[in-house]
Write a sequence for this structure.
């Protein structure tokens, strides 16, 4: 086998491989002899079929298998021998036309093909112990816990029927038919729908027009959908709703006591407050982790600058761009609505793709050096977390993960990244800073871009 490097530009490699016809013939003869004792042909005793006859019967199909084996095994072996790692699946280009291909299968011509790939870049890892991280911490006040408990109590509020007109805070049960240009629209019709007036659950202006109505009353509610309404075909359009009030109910006062807690499946109001505090802590903890991780990744991004595999960046950009376009389509918006142009957006998200690829390579090498490992238990836990998201489809999804290594790899990658981040944070200079919940939960423009494309 002749191996010739024809391109070595930056990370790009191109290798010309030629397998002489004599090598192909030797492999074919070996296969024919190995198959001789297994072949059963009419007119020949087992093991007595002449090699020449076997070649006539099976030579071309066996040669095709040999060629496929060479294509499957050679790229991996060559790249390994060169002590390189391919960024993506190498591209293989056959150099023969149809006539030449037939000659190869007949054993009358050399088999040649070109192997093209990009190598993963090599770079020196930098000391990360000096990275300074400011961890934002929110101190949870008792008042915030009490406020959340009150909201829970309000959501568990009971109602009793009342005579007379509906007031803010009352619950009305109604039928309605929504129309645009006089025609009912999808999703605009409901029966026995419950609505607490003043809750803000419906389109702005809807609930206000029901105040003062009583059971049996009918009213045509007129309003305009907000410009940023989720359903693009309704956004900004004038609509009417033919409403029939079927009943009105007034709220009963809900005491925040052990009895309420027990209704919620918790033994006491004291324990209820503990659970609420834990939930708030968890919510803030996620936000804190996000801010800390962002600072760490920013620091790494500023530290490293090296050539990136173009195809890896293109693949990442393609994933991001597809998601961005889908989100714009679903929202019924354009780039102009987002105060940008398609060219500007492409440039922005390409920079994001480059950042992701660069940081992915850095985190991977850091994790490799630190011997970061993913346990089977962690992988199983991640898989079952995915299964819980699709009730009724657990078995099919489980089989999909078992049969598709790439699917399992997609679960492994985020776990690995978080463990490498933990490793880096353990070495970094982390100091706590008390902030307000508004400061913690605020997103800057870069955070929004990262979130939108993640």
């Amino acid at each position: 086998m002749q191996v010739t490097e024809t391109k070595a530009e930056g990370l790009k490699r191109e290798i010309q491989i030629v397998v002489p016809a004599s090598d192909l013939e030797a492999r074919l003869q070996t296969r024919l002899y190995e198959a001789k004792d297994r072949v059963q042909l009419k007119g020949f005793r087992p093991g007595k079929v002449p090699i020449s006859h076997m070649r006539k019967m099976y030579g071309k199909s066996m040669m095709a298998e040999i060629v496929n084996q060479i294509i499957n095994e050679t790229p991996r072996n060559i790249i390994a021998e060169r002590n390189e790692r391919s960024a993506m699946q190498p591209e293989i280009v056959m150099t023969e036309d149809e006539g030449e291909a037939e000659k190869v299968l007949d054993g009358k011509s050399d088999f040649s093909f070109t192997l093209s790939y990009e190598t993963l870049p090599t770079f020196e890892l930098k000391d990360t112990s000096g990275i300074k991280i400011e961890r934002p911490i929110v101190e949870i006040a008792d008042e915030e816990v009490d406020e959340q408990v009150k909201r829970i109590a309000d959501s568990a509020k009971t109602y009793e029927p009342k005579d007379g007109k509906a007031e803010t805070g009352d619950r009305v049960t109604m039928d309605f038919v929504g129309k645009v240009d006089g025609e009912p629209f999808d999703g605009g019709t409901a029966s026995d729908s419950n609505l607490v007036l003043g809750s803000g659950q419906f389109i702005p202006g809807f609930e206000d027009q029901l105040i003062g109505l009583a059971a049996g009353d009918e009213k045509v509610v007129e309003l305009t959908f907000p410009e940023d309404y989720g359903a693009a075909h309704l956004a900004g359009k004038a609509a009417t709703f033919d409403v029939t009030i079927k009943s009105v109910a007034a709220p009963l006062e809900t005491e925040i006591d052990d009895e309420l807690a027990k209704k919620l499946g918790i033994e006491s109001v004291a324990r209820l407050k503990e659970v609420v505090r834990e939930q708030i802590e968890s919510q803030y903890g996620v936000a804190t982790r996000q801010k800390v991780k962002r600072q760490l990744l920013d620091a790494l991004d500023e530290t490293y600058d090296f050539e990136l595999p173009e195809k890896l960046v293109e693949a990442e950009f393609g994933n991001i761009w597809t998601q961005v376009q889908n989100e714009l389509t679903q929202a019924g918006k354009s780039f102009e609505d987002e105060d940008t142009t398609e060219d500007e957006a492409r440039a922005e998200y390409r920079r994001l793709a480059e950042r992701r690829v660069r940081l992915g390579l850095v985190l991977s090498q850091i994790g490799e050096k630190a011997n970061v490992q993913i346990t089977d238990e962690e992988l199983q836990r991640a898989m079952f977390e995915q299964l819980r998201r699709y009730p009724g489809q657990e078995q099919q999804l489980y089989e999909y993960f078992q049969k598709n290594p790439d699917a399992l790899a997609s679960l492994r990658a985020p776990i690995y990244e978080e463990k490498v981040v933990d490793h880096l944070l353990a070495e970094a200079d982390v100091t706590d800073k008390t902030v307000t919940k508004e400061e913690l939960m605020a997103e800057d423009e870069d955070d929004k871009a990262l979130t939108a494309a993640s």
In short: Residues 208 and 277 are 34 Å apart (CA to CA). The chain has a mean pLDDT of 90.
